[in-house]
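Quarterly update from the structural biology core.
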Amino acid sequence: MPEFTGHNDIRSYLRVLWRWKLLFLALVIACPLAAYLLERGKPNVYQSQALVGVNQESVVTTLLDNSGGFSTTNVTAVAQLVKTSPVADVAAGLMHPPANPSQIASEVSATGNTVTNFVTITAQDRNPVRAAEIANAFAKAIGRNQTHNAISQLDSAIAGIKAQLSHLSSKDLTTQATLKAQLDQLQAAVAGQGNEAAILQAAAPDYTPAGPHLKRTVELGFVIGLLLAFGAVVLAESADRRMRTTDDLEGMTDLPLLGSIAPSAFRDSPELDPVDEESFQMLRTSLTYFNVDQALKSVLITSPSEKEGKTTVATRLALAAARAGSRVVLVDADLRRAGATERLHVDRPIGLGSVLSGQASAQDALAEVALPEDALGHLRVLPAGPPPPNPSALMSSSRMQELVHELEADTDLVIVDTPAALAVSDAVPLMQTVSGIVLVARLNQSDQATVERLRRIVSNAHGVLLGVVATGVSAGLGYGQKTRSHYYYSSRGREAQRKRRPAAGQEQPSAGGLLLNPTDQQPVSSQPD
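Predicted structure, tokenized:
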């Protein structure tokens, strides 16, 4: 996830959410839907409440000795007694017909108010009348339980006093008198028990269902779904190692971004949209501007894996450079699958394999590519030819290196299209031979591990990485918003270019590098001033 630093990062977060929109929507929809389905199947539940008041002093504890004593003023403890087995047994016996104690205990709850000494007993059942009966039964049972406990405590105290009297000497009249007085008071207390808990408000049937809470449950499911969705997006984004933005590609490789190619540039049509055509013109210009300290005579186009747009970039770059006035040779060095040859529709019986094996010369294998009339340069292609049995050996041969230098001496720019560098090793021997290497990576497909591995391979092969090209880049803000006429020359400008174009057989102006502006007549060298 992007680190938050301002408004631009808000858009980054929105892009992340949009990238994982299916996962996000699945969780946001699934959680409330599951809550709805679970809650909808539940039967209606009805609720009734009974209010019970607990006496503050039902037993005078001073009548008991110091080791005993009890009090019924703890209303919280009384509320906790409601769900105990003794109280449930009493309540079950009070119902008609008698109920199952454990079953009704699971349907009842109680809360105590320490300020008022009131206990609220709440019962839930599928039948509103039965819910009221359960609440009233427990209200009566708690009173009886309190009375029973008090009497039990008093009986225990009475038994203790009688035991003391039986052991006293007949001469100890004072102690006998005191114990007999306590005994009389305790027996009186036993007779007065029965009003420890009084029902202040009996439960009545309530025919309005207390549950299930369908709306509340669905809303809670929606909130849970949102939290899970955001968490899942964060986890998915953290675990995803694919290149998602051009910033990811630049930041990882520490190389300049030479160009961003939209998916529409990969159509089979020979003519591109003006916006896509401009992206390759920008790539051609960037190669010179970002590498002004070295002569750029040959460029190797490679990518970590297949289907990343490497061949399209090589082909379109060659066409853009030729239209701008450079003499360009495109070498289809993919001896296993001739991609550039097929894209330019070159039909040649001999190719690079024949040249490297000594069966033909380079001049015999080169094929001229027809360019538009307003093109200032020319383009030749050295096709791959029939697949040889040993492509890796041919690519690593000294003859291949010599061929690249021969083509550099005869042209302004040599562009070499090779197979994916991590798929086969064909491109590795050429990395030190060419002037520079352009790394092509497709957003949302290339992962960080493969790009980093290719970068290390180039470094170990002593190659020069010129920059990176991001393919599959969707149009962003400001991209493609200008009119189509912005990218076309006017008819007058095209006519002027044709008039200024050298006649057939006249030598093209050469600068030993790429031209920067297709309308410039004087070529601009890639060498610094």
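Residues 401 and 430 are 7 Å apart (CA to CA).
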